[in-house]
Amino acid sequence: MEAPPGLALLLFFGTLLVLPQSSHGATRYYTFNVTMQNVTRLCTTRAIPTVNGKFPGPKIVTREGDRVVVKVVNNVKDNVTIHWHGVRQLRTGWSDGPAYVTQCPIRTGQSYVYNFTITGQRGTLLWHAHVSWMRATLYGPIVILPKRGVPYPFPVKPYKEVPIIFGEWFKTDPEAIIAQALKTGAGPNVSDAFTINGLPGPLYNCSSKDTFKLKVQPGKWYLLRLINAALNEDLFFSIANHTLTVVDVDAAYVKPFHADVVLITPGQTTNVLLRAEPDAGCPAATHLMLARPYSTGQPGTFDNTTVAAVLEYAPPGHIKSLPLLRPPLPTLNDTAFAANYSAKLRSLATPEYPANVPRGVDRSFFFTVGLGTNPCPANRTCQGPNGSMFTASMNNVSFGMPTTALLQAHYSNIAGVYATDFPAAPLEAFNYTGTPPNNTHVSNGTKVVELQYNTSVEVVLQGTSILGAESHPLHLHGFDFFVVGQGFGNYDSSKDPAKFNLVDPVQRNTVGVPAAGWVAIRFFADNPGVWFMHCHLEVHTSWGLKMAWVVNDGPLPEQKLMPPPADLPKC
């Protein structure tokens, strides 16, 4: 629903909002009622948290420059927050959503109004819950159209645009799964299936009727908005006998390139163009759309199954009566494919869509990311490595969540909630991707990095081999960043910067740190507030692979964090 632009004062569902004047764009209103809903998958019915009774949740549709206002009402027993993943939230950190970072959770029977403006973004993002593992079922697409009258920067006008959302399905409550894992120190049970638009598809038992079908017309172009909302798995995706053209990632245009297979980590989005062209020799075939994990972890630590949907040409036929065409997918641990695919992603870097990558660096950081252990508490039996408890860390600091929201502590100068001594580099260097050290214990603390407004920042994210080398999709709230370099092995500060791409690096909000490798990102700290940075594998976030950036206000009024809204939830 739209309202006239420039509306500064409105009464919205009983909540008075004071909004800054906007001379561009519309205001779009949504209500998210979080309720329990019985959903049956794989012949098992389970009551799951949903938004407005839908799984996946409703689609947010907006345009660049629009304001989005969403009232979230919590009608379930668990605490809830909603994160608008990838939205820049310029000066509106109170609407970012991560629990105990920018807000306290919305408790049962309470509500909170998120309001923010879409600035300089167009493409696809996603929304999801951001407390514990609630995002297993609380997620949905954000479709950001260009400003009115502004065309897509590619020559093809899509006949239809379709969100394709990947998820995971658990036969048991994910909240119980992670609670048990944190209690025992073991790894959590993996999901029972992957889903495409909430449906597991015909390759799972008792699931043939729960199959997403994309109905297409020969010769038409389709824009598929791919979203990985899975909890814990990077995914390969392909469509039998069809080539995709990648045109946008994380709501930023890229130089188009063709791909038979797309790699997408949790939290990432990818827009692809698809031309519907049935095979001349087999036009009535069933073309499967498949997704399965990319993982370098040990067997049993990830869901090693494949989800299928159907690309259906008219007139439709019965799946069992048509030839079945399956696309080939890379092997589960094909790190070379992952590196080559990532290297193809380049910003448009045109006058209309420039790549404003920092050429100089004010502050440089080197963060190790990986797993570790904590000792088993006294009088307990733990099921982690050698009787310890699994944990995860950045620079050997496992982040402890506070009980007061970090943004509230920053804004109100509340002492004792966090420390500003997060290390800029590991306190002890080691062969990060070689033989791991004997001592895998980590430290614990609620530590942040403090930045002055508009600081140019470079972060090298170095994967480690401690307890196994894995890819870590790192997500930064409040900013887009540029991926200026990546490689395997240990980062070499004397040689690797010479190979950085400062001309047209891809712009993202979530990047996969290569297994046993590194990635370098740059951004301007031009958004005041407190901004979470964490692994988007939910199990690693639960174990502490996270930190936060505190960006101080700039000197001008438009460089300062807005005051908190009156209905901000209390801890």
UniProtKB/TrEMBL annotation:
<dbReference type="InterPro" id="IPR017761">
    <property type="entry name" value="Laccase"/>
</dbReference>
<feature type="signal peptide">
    <location>
        <begin position="1"/>
        <end position="25"/>
    </location>
</feature>
<dbReference type="GO" id="GO:0046274">
    <property type="term" value="P:lignin catabolic process"/>
</dbReference>
<keyword id="KW-0560">Oxidoreductase</keyword>
<dbReference type="InterPro" id="IPR033138">
    <property type="entry name" value="Cu_oxidase_CS"/>
</dbReference>
<dbReference type="GO" id="GO:0048046">
    <property type="term" value="C:apoplast"/>
</dbReference>
<feature type="domain" description="Plastocyanin-like">
    <location>
        <begin position="161"/>
        <end position="314"/>
    </location>
</feature>
<dbReference type="InterPro" id="IPR011707">
    <property type="entry name" value="Cu-oxidase-like_N"/>
</dbReference>
<feature type="domain" description="Plastocyanin-like">
    <location>
        <begin position="34"/>
        <end position="147"/>
    </location>
</feature>
<dbReference type="InterPro" id="IPR002355">
    <property type="entry name" value="Cu_oxidase_Cu_BS"/>
</dbReference>
<dbReference type="Pfam" id="PF00394">
    <property type="entry name" value="Cu-oxidase"/>
</dbReference>
<keyword id="KW-0439">Lignin degradation</keyword>
<dbReference type="InterPro" id="IPR011706">
    <property type="entry name" value="Cu-oxidase_C"/>
</dbReference>
<keyword id="KW-0964">Secreted</keyword>
<dbReference type="Pfam" id="PF07731">
    <property type="entry name" value="Cu-oxidase_2"/>
</dbReference>
<keyword id="KW-0186">Copper</keyword>
<protein>
    <recommendedName>
        <fullName>Laccase</fullName>
        <ecNumber>1.10.3.2</ecNumber>
    </recommendedName>
</protein>
<feature type="domain" description="Plastocyanin-like">
    <location>
        <begin position="430"/>
        <end position="553"/>
    </location>
</feature>
<dbReference type="InterPro" id="IPR008972">
    <property type="entry name" value="Cupredoxin"/>
</dbReference>
<dbReference type="GO" id="GO:0052716">
    <property type="term" value="F:hydroquinone:oxygen oxidoreductase activity"/>
</dbReference>
<dbReference type="InterPro" id="IPR045087">
    <property type="entry name" value="Cu-oxidase_fam"/>
</dbReference>
<keyword id="KW-0052">Apoplast</keyword>
<keyword id="KW-0479">Metal-binding</keyword>
<keyword id="KW-0677">Repeat</keyword>
<keyword id="KW-0732">Signal</keyword>
<dbReference type="InterPro" id="IPR034289">
    <property type="entry name" value="CuRO_3_LCC"/>
</dbReference>
<comment type="function">
    <text>Lignin degradation and detoxification of lignin-derived products.</text>
</comment>
<dbReference type="InterPro" id="IPR001117">
    <property type="entry name" value="Cu-oxidase_2nd"/>
</dbReference>
<dbReference type="InterPro" id="IPR034288">
    <property type="entry name" value="CuRO_1_LCC"/>
</dbReference>
<dbReference type="Pfam" id="PF07732">
    <property type="entry name" value="Cu-oxidase_3"/>
</dbReference>
<dbReference type="GO" id="GO:0005507">
    <property type="term" value="F:copper ion binding"/>
</dbReference>
<comment type="similarity">
    <text>Belongs to the multicopper oxidase family.</text>
</comment>
<dbReference type="InterPro" id="IPR034285">
    <property type="entry name" value="CuRO_2_LCC"/>
</dbReference>
